[in-house]
């Protein structure tokens, strides 16, 4: 029970990585604020958390909107009394369009959800954590924020911004005993990934990955649990790849 008597807010927790994090945190003793703009999906996650014996509240909010974020944070504090852990996971799919094919509106929305959303949620929760004198923030970036990839310009730029924001907040809030860290997943097998890679065969999936498989949502959740727990009390400002060794291999030859 590494998170016993803790309260965690997980954004984008209706499915995929966010859902896996919410459920693992609940199994480790945390009560969960389940955020998603997809209300039915958020309700399903919250129901699963309750079946594990933990409290859960559903928080429908667009993380790119300041008023909605502040309302969400106020609600979780009012109903669950505190926020000990924030996981900034809410995202938006990368559609693989080359930059000359993208609209400015699409770019703005990607940056709004991924980077602005991480900033707004961290700012709002951070005010509480500063007064509390403790807290854990885990941001979900991507290997796409570390290397350049065709068709991922807006997504990659936003995820890179999350990495720098992580480091800046870690330095700024260290004196308040707030740990701010970041996970950079590689290709993770989620419903969204399957929809956007439906023509990729199972053989092709592991071809360019040293561990020869796509990651599972639980692989990311376990990394998030480590960073959110006291096991990582002297770790802040790091970027932890969860990518099966993909970044370590250098230029791809497959």
Secondary structure elements and pairings:
Elements: E1 7-10, H1 16-27, E2 31-35, H2 39-51, E3 56-59, H3 66-80, E4 85-88, H4 104-132, E5 135-140, H5 153-173, E6 178-185, E7 188-189, H6 191-196, H7 202-205, E8 215-216, H8 217-228, E9 239-242
Parallel strand pairs: 1-2, 1-4, 2-3, 4-5, 5-6, 6-9, 7-8
Description:
The protein is α/β, with parallel strands linked by helices and 254 residues long. It has a single domain, classed as Rossmann fold. 44% of the residues lie in helices and 15% in strands. The protein has helices at 16-27, 39-51, 66-80, 104-132, 153-173, 191-196, 202-205, 217-228, and strands at residues 7-10, 31-35, 56-59, 85-88, 135-140, 178-185, 188-189, 215-216, 239-242. The strands form 2 sheets. A 7-stranded parallel sheet has the order 3-2-1-4-5-6-9, sandwiched between helices. Strands 7-8 form a two-stranded parallel ribbon. β5, α5 (153-173) and β6 form a beta-alpha-beta unit. α1 (16-27) packs across α8 (217-228), α3 (66-80) packs parallel to α4 and α4 (104-132) packs parallel to α5 (153-173). The mean pLDDT is 93.
N-to-C SSE series?
EHEHEHEHEHEEHHEHE
Number of strands: 9
Give the low-pLDDT segments. none
Count of the domains: 1
Give the radius of gyration. 17 Å
- Determine the structural class based on helices, strands and strand pairing: alpha/beta
Strand content: 15-25%
CATH architecture annotation name: 3-Layer(aba) Sandwich
- CATH H-tier superfamily: NAD(P)-binding Rossmann-like Domain
The termini sit apart by 42 Å
Mean pLDDT: 93
Question: Residue share in helices?
Answer: 40-55%
Helix segment count? 8
Strands of the widest sheet, in order across it, are 3-2-1-4-5-6-9
CATH class: Alpha Beta
Describe the biggest sheet? 7 strands, parallel
What is the CATH topology?
Rossmann fold
Shape: globular
């Amino acid at each position: 029970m590494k998170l016993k008597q803790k309260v965690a807010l997980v954004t984008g927790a209706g499915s995929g990585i966010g859902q896996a994090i919410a459920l693992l945190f609940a199994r480790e003793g945390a009560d969960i604020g389940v955020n998603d703009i997809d209300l039915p999906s958020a309700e399903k996650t919250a129901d699963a958390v309750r079946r594990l014996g933990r409290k859960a509240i559903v928080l429908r909010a667009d993380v790119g909107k300041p008023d909605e974020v502040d309302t969400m944070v106020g609600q979780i504090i009012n109903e669950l009394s505190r926020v000990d852990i924030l996981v900034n996971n809410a995202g938006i799919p990368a559609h693989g369009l080359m930059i000359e094919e993208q609209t400015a509106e699409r770019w703005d929305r990607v940056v709004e959800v991924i980077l602005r959303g991480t900033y707004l949620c961290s700012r709002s929760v951070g005010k509480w954590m500063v007064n509390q004198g403790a807290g854990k923030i885990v941001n979900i970036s991507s290997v796409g924020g570390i290397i350049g990839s065709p068709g991922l310009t807006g997504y990659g730029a936003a995820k890179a911004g999350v990495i720098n924001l992580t480091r800046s907040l870690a330095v700024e809030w260290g004196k308040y005993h707030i740990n701010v860290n970041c996970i950079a997943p590689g290709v993770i097998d989620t419903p969204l990934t399957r929809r956007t890679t439906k023509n990729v065969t199972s053989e092709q999936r592991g071809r360019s990955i040293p561990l020869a498989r796509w990651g599972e949502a639980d692989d990311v959740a376990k990394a998030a649990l480590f960073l959110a727990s006291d096991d990582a009390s002297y770790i802040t400002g790091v970027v932890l790849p969860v990518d099966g060794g993909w970044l370590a291999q250098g230029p791809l030859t497959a």
